[in-house]
Write a structure and sequence with these properties.
A: 106 residues, mainly alpha, B: 275 residues, alpha+beta, SH3 type barrels, 2 domains, 5-stranded antiparallel β-sheet, 5 strands, elongated
């Protein structure tokens, strides 16, 4: 999509943009509605909220940001980003473990 | 000398320079917000059971803000598509709506911040707590607008506190009683009875600290992005007449930043407002 230049191809993309917009609005409604449902397991609540948010993020990144048809260079940059972001979150979670060696032992 | 690869792609990457640049910048932004989200996880998981407040934020207002940003996302991509189809008038229309959405988002966020800064918790010398929005204050007394539960049970507005002298979900009670159709009273507290008086700013508790940090940084990105888009809509649009392809690429790149701002909010909203 990012490398198409003809107005005809852009016109086809416009329809997809509108569908993504609709999906994002529906996703927002679902997210808010789901928040009013009380699930016994809080972990499930968190995972559900993040799952819906990830779907919406995929739609924005894939179609609005044209990632679905981008060049390898961008995929490489983003793969490196995902790797370091995952590392950042993992280090945070690892540091919270009670038997993690970074805790001061008295 | 003309800057190379502002319009035509490089042979090795297949991209024009600005696109590589903006994606590298967005990668750094992912790490910035990722670090703050990690801080949020750390703080929340590390909090004592029941100590992490919920219901402090207004979900309908947050939902409206989410819809505003999603709308601005579609308009910013439609602005780029309009330029690709050589429709400059439509580009101006869509970018104007984008900037208006940004202003609306900032306006709503300002109202939310104002609500927090005018929401006070007063701890009296005898340990009781009064919690509500500020009506007025003078040298003698402070008047708060507190809410009571419709069932008539003792509320945070009256003398309710837990064994540790901390309010029992005071703000959550206020939000809940609002939703339950509770009525509101004005409570006058003489200054001589006040041990501590604090509003719901970032200093009030850990949740509000991370809330203001995350949303404040996000709002700065909204303002910065809106400023760039407004410039390209205004004085910067002169380039359309001289170098239309280079201008279209600028719109695409600024749009990518705007979509990132929207992406961050897509995660911020459920994490802060709903969980």
């Amino acid at each position: 999509m990012a490398h198409t230049h003809s107005p005809e191809e852009i016109k086809k993309s416009v329809r997809k943009y509108m569908m993504v917009f609709g999906a994002l609005l529906v996703g927002t409604v679902i997210t808010v509605a789901a928040s009013y449902i009380h699930f016994e397991n809080f972990t499930f609540t968190v995972l559900l909220a993040l799952f819906i948010a990830s779907i919406k993020a995929f739609l924005v990144a894939g179609w609005f940001m044209h990632l679905i048809s981008e060049r390898k260079m961008i995929y490489f940059i983003l793969t490196a980003t995902v790797f370091f972001f995952a590392g950042l979150v993992y280090l945070t979670l690892w540091s919270m473990a009670p038997d993690s060696f970074i805790h001061i032992r008295r | 000398m003309e800057i190379p690869y502002t319009v035509h792609e490089r042979e090795d990457t297949g991209l024009y320079n600005a696109k590589v640049g903006i994606w590298l910048f967005l990668a750094s932004e992912v790490m910035l917000f990722g670090a703050l989200f990690s801080a949020y996880i750390l703080l929340r998981v590390g909090a004592s059971p029941g100590a992490w407040p919920t219901g402090l934020l207004n979900v309908p207002i947050g939902t409206v803000n989410t819809i505003v940003l999603i709308t601005s996302s579609i308009t910013v991509v439609m602005a780029w598509a309009s330029l690709k189809m050589n429709q400059f008038g439509k580009f101006k229309m869509y970018q104007t709506i984008t900037v208006l959405c940004a202003l609306m988002f900032c306006g709503i966020k300002s109202y939310e911040y104002y609500d927090k800064f005018t929401h006070y918790e007063i701890i009296k010398h005898d340990g009781t707590v009064v919690d509500g929005h500020l009506v007025s204050q003078n040298t003698n007394e402070v008047v708060l607008h507190v809410s009571h539960k419709a069932t008539g049970a003792a509320t945070h507005g009256k003398e309710e506190h837990n064994a540790a002298g901390q309010p029992k979900d005071s703000a959550k009670n206020e939000s809940a009683s609002h939703a339950a159709g509770g009525h509101h009273d004005e409570v006058r507290v003489p200054r001589s009875e006040i041990r501590k008086m604090e509003n719901y700013g970032p200093w009030h508790n850990t949740y509000l600290a991370i809330y203001f940090t995350l949303t404040g940084l996000h709002a700065l990105h909204v303002i910065g992005g809106a400023a760039v888009i407004a410039y390209l809509l205004g004085p910067g649009s002169k380039m359309w007449k001289t170098e239309p392809e280079r201008f279209t690429n600028r719109i695409e790149v600024s749009g990518l930043f705007w979509h990132f701002v929207d992406l961050v909010w897509i995660f911020l909203f459920p994490v802060l407002y709903l969980l």
